[in-house]
């Protein structure tokens, strides 16, 4: 080890500095925080000064051009060596932290504190951007072969980019994360091995890490016994054999990169942090450096005169390798192969990347010249032989590289910012509230703020346990902390809505399990660990179910009783991710039943992107947002598939802007986001402002009138499908909003139908009519087609209307068959029949007198029975219907006689308060809502009955009991003779007997077969007369 002291000169003010040599090695250029550029011909002479701005951060020189990164957020060009300005190369939205110039002088790369990286072609000025880092850029380095670009960032990762496609080839975790270049433990100035680029050296906190070019596998880590501090920068010698590096505490360490031996160690006289180091391109024994005090230094004779080299191969082996006899044998074999015409016509030998192990097998200090690489020979279709047949010329081709596995996205909490930020969002929800974390020298705490102060007042919680994950509902705050050497990973719940005095509880995970994701439902908590376990807890702290997922978790979200879990299915390739998801109805609360909506399916994501937000809309529909700005939502009405509903990149005003999604709404159709200018994550202060964007489904020809109507129809239909889901799960919905949606759908389809008719696209118009939801809209389309003289279209639509009516009648007939089986069991006895099903014990039969009591559970039971009877007028079936269905082969007269002799069967009377209420109010509801069908009107009536007071419900129940008693007393006296003008309900109706409601469109049929024939004939007659009058 040599203790030679370096030569030092004061060059700049205190701060980060950088040095570089020109190609001749005669000039050394330095820059610093004083904004000056210093050109040194000799370390002992006074330098020339060039003013470049208030501050300069990085420099690069190739040929007669000097590139400078200044505080003007740009990279400027200067002529060298006179220093005259030569224009602007590229501009950023933040300070340029580092730049790199390619060996060919054709390409310049620069990274900025706005997380952006750009490459610029010097001649054409063409720019490319490389986005993917989540923190300011520390350094960039262009591959000598100009195939890759390497970059290091404050997010702790080093990324390898393809210069051709701008896509990330690989991501490696190198250093600790930080939020700014000044706060980083290392500048991490990476460098490639000269000429070949066969490996790359990366400074880190524990040494210089050497990675292989093709596999990106860590080959070895170079360290020195003299220091244990972080390494700031490194640089390969021009020959590629030696590597120099500098540390935070001023040590300069040199290694033989081939033997991994420490060649020399020298410390800065002032033990100052060294921020830059570079080799003289024309000398292998001279290193220049600069420190954070503004000093420029020179260290000479760094390479010893003798170094152990690779053992020389024996001459005999070399002679045997190129023996003439073997050559002749190869030529003969090749000649035979050509005559026999084998299947493999061409044989290509890939040109290997030259290795410095062979180049410097026996070099000395006096003979260390850079290796030269011959250009690849043209690919030849066959072997060519020289005149004496003593050598073989083989064709060469480019090395084919396989797709490398992409790095798997780590787990994240939706709407949370990275943990390395001192002030960050832990949870941000537009509906409930916000959780912020503050970690600095003054305070380490968590603030919880609710948007509605009636939910709870703001909370201020100390963060002594270093909680990094959070979840929030309108009843509790949940926090999670990673494990430490002294404590396991833990989960904490602040149940502020609890009625007891103990509102907090904490539970520790088992040894070896690390919490990675959590979410909060209505009254349950789900937490996922790295052991692929999802653990469920109640808000009170009781452990419930445990679920195993098939891959590493990515994110989780909860809404109401739904749990949305995203996980890795496998490792992707080509920078793509392979995600899967589960959608469950948990059912751990209130004893409700659990159900798997989607047990395990692939989750779509834009190629080359990752997930940025996972959650639910405000109405409870699963949705995702990826880093490409694509918003996808689950389409429940189409086989639980995913559909793209918006692309945020298309509405961005600048490509440097980023939209941080906070919440999604279906009614109204709005996207709530925070606009981040020049950054990816929003800052906690000043308080960010929410903005609103609209959805747009990416259909073809979206700018045309036809495309606009189609997009509006499908978007409206998609964003109204949540109402059916909520209704089936017992949640109240806005009936008025559904009516407006139906009218909007009908209006949009009619406009699209009119457009198709005007364009003479009658078949398209026919397709549009097939999507119309009601017969009224179909009739309107027929009238419009007749009015504009589209007679053939009107006739086709008439036939389509008849067919759809017949299909609807068939469906309703099947539904009534199912309802009749339930009525049969409810109206006669509890004995089992061929249609009997297991009935719930807490839902009494609607035919029992007094079945509807004051208890709300009985009301709900009666209402459930009413839902199953849908279009029937009463809850007790006709005896004739029973006999027809139980004995379909009996003569009609026998059946009628059997029905007349039966005196024990009561007449159709309302036996519950709900039924009595509906019998009196349904006509009025039908008049008020003529656009609703009979089922929706009945549902609305039941909803109104629920809304009345308890006293009114008692009155209706009492009236129903009295009516039931009078009906029972009237039938107890025996079979009475009917009057001549009285119609018995048990008699079969005539072909024209139809019970109608106040709205003709809602006719309720007593006999399905006879009514179907009558209605079909009537509809055909009307449509035929309409078509005939239209032709006139």
From TrEMBL:
Q: Where is the WDHD1/CFT4 helical bundle domain?
A: 708-801
Q: Which InterPro entries match?
A: HMG-box_WDHD1 (IPR055339), HMG_box_dom_sf (IPR036910), WD40/YVTN_repeat-like_dom_sf (IPR015943), WD40_repeat_CS (IPR019775), WD40_repeat_dom_sf (IPR036322), WD40_rpt (IPR001680), WD40_WDHD1_1st (IPR057646), WDHD1/CFT4_beta-prop_2nd (IPR022100)
According to its UniProt entry, this protein's organism is Ciona savignyi
SUPFAM superfamilies membership? WD40 repeat-like
Where is this protein localized, as stated in its record?
A: Nucleus
Any one GO molecular function term:
DNA binding
Which UniProt key words apply to this protein? Nucleus, Repeat, WD repeat
In this chain the WDHD1/CFT4 second beta-propeller domain maps to: 411-699
Q: Where is this region: Disordered?
A: 829-858, 958-1002
**Can you tell me where the transmembrane regions are?**
none
Primary site of residence? nucleus
Highest taxon of source? Eukaryota
Name-wise, this protein is: Minichromosome loss protein Mcl1 middle region domain-containing protein
């Amino acid at each position: 080890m040599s203790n030679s002291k370096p030569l030092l000169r004061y060059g700049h003010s205190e701060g980060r500095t950088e040095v570089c040599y020109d190609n001749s090695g005669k000039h050394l250029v330095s820059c610093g925080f004083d904004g000056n550029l210093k050109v040194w011909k000799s370390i002992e002479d006074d330098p020339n000064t060039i003013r470049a701005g208030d501050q300069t951060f990085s420099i690069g020189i190739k040929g007669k051009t000097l590139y400078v990164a200044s505080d003007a957020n740009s990279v400027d060009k200067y002529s060298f060596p006179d220093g005259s300005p030569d224009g602007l190369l590229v501009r950023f939205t933040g300070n340029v932290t580092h730049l790199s110039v390619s060996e060919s002088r054709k390409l310049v790369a620069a990274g900025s504190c706005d997380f952006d990286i750009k490459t610029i072609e010097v001649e054409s000025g063409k720019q490319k951007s490389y986005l993917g880092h989540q923190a300011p850029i520390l350094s960039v380095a262009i591959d000598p072969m100009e195939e890759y670009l390497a970059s290091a960032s404050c997010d702790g990762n080093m990324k390898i980019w393809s210069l051709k496609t701008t896509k990330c080839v690989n991501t490696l975790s190198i250093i600790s994360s930080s939020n700014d270049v000044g706060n980083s433990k290392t500048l991490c100035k990476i460098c490639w091995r000269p000429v070949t680029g066969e490996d790359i050296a990366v400074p880190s906190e524990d040494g210089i890490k050497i990675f292989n070019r093709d596999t990106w596998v860590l080959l070895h880590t170079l360290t020195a016994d003299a220091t244990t501090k972080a390494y700031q920068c490194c640089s390969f010698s021009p020959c590629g054999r030696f590597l120099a590096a500098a540390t935070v505490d001023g040590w300069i360490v040199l290694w033989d990169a081939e033997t991994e031996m420490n060649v020399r160690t020298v410390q800065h006289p002032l033990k100052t942090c060294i921020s830059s180091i570079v080799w003289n391109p024309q000398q292998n024994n001279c290193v220049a450096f600069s420190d954070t005090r503004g000093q420029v230094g020179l260290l000479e004779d760094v390479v010893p005169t003798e170094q152990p080299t690779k053992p020389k191969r024996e001459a005999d082996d070399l002679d045997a390798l190129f023996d003439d006899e073997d050559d002749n044998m190869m030529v003969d074999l090749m000649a035979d192969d050509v005559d026999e015409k084998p299947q493999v016509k061409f044989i290509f030998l890939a040109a290997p990347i030259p290795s410095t192990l062979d180049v410097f097998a026996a070099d000395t200090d006096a003979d260390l010249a850079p290796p030269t690489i011959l250009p690849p020979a043209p690919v030849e279709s066959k072997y060519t032989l020289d005149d004496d047949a003593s050598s073989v010329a083989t064709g060469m081709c480019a090395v084919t590289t396989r797709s490398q596995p992409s790095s798997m996205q780590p787990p994240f909490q939706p709407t949370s910012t990275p943990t390395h930020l001192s002030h960050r969002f832990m949870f941000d929800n537009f509906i409930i509230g916000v959780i912020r974390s503050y970690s600095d020298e003054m305070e380490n705490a968590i603030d919880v703020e609710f948007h509605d102060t009636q939910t709870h007042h703001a909370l201020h919680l100390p963060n002594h346990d270093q909680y990094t994950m959070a979840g929030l509902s309108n009843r509790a705050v949940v926090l999670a902390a990673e494990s430490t050497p002294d404590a396991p990973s833990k989960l904490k719940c602040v149940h502020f809505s609890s009625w007891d005095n103990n509102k907090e509880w904490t539970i520790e995970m088992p040894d070896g399990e690390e919490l990675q994701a959590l979410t909060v439902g209505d009254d349950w908590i789900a937490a996922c660990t790295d052991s692929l376990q999802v653990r469920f807890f109640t808000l009170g702290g009781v452990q419930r179910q445990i679920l195993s997922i098939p891959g590493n978790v990515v994110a989780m979200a909860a809404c109401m009783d739904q749990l949305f879990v995203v996980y890795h299915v496998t490792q992707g390739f080509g920078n793509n991710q392979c995600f899967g998801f589960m959608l469950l109805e948990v059912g751990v609360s209130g004893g409700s039943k659990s159900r798997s909506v989607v047990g395990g399916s692939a989750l779509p994501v834009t190629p080359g992107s990752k997930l940025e937000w996972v959650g639910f809309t405000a109405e409870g529909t699963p949705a995702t947002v990826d880093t490409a700005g694509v918003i996808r939502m689950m389409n429940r009405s189409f086989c639980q598939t995913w559909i793209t509903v918006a692309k945020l990149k298309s509405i961005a005003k600048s490509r440097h802007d980023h939209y941080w999604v906070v919440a999604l709404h279906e009614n109204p159709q709005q996207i709530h986001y925070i606009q981040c200018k020049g950054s990816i994550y929003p800052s906690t202060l000043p308080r960010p402002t929410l903005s609103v964007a609209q959805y747009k489904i990416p259909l073809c020809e979206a700018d045309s009138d036809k495309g606009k109507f189609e997009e509006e129809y499908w978007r409206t239909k998609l964003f109204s499908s949540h109402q059916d889901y909520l209704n089936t799960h017992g949640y109240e919905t806005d009936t008025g909003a559904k009516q407006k949606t139906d009218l909007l759908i009908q209006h949009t389809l009619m406009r699209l139908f009119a457009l198709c008719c005007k364009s003479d696209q009658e078949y398209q118009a026919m397709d549009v009519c097939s999507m119309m939801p009601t017969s009224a809209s179909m009739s309107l389309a027929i009238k419009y087609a007749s009015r504009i003289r589209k007679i053939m279209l009107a006739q086709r639509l008439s036939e389509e209307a008849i067919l759809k009516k017949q299909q609807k009648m068939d469906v309703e007939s099947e539904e009534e068959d199912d309802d009749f089986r339930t009525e049969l069991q409810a109206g006669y006895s509890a004995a089992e029949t061929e249609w009997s099903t297991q009935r719930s014990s807490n839902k009494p039969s609607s035919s029992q007198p007094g079945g509807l009591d004051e208890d709300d559970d009985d009301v709900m039971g009666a209402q459930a029975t009413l839902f199953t009877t849908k279009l029937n007028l009463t809850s007790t079936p006709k005896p004739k219907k029973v006999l027809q269905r139980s004995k379909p082969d009996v003569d009609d007269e026998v059946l009628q006689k059997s029905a007349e002799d039966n005196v024990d069967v009561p007449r159709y009377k309302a036996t519950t308060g709900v039924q009595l209420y509906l019998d009196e109010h349904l006509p009025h509801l039908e008049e008020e809502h003529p656009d609703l069908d009979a089922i929706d009107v009945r549902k609305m009536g039941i909803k109104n009955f629920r809304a009345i007071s308890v006293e009114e419900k008692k009155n209706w129940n009492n009236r129903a009991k009295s009516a039931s008693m009078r009906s029972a007393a009237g039938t107890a006296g025996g079979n009475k003779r009917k009057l001549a003008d009285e119609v018995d309900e048990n008699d079969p109706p005539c072909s024209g007997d139809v019970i109608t409601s106040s709205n003709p469109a809602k006719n309720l049929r007593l006999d399905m077969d006879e009514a179907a024939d009558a209605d079909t004939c009537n509809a055909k007659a009307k449509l035929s007369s309409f078509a005939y009058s239209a032709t006139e």
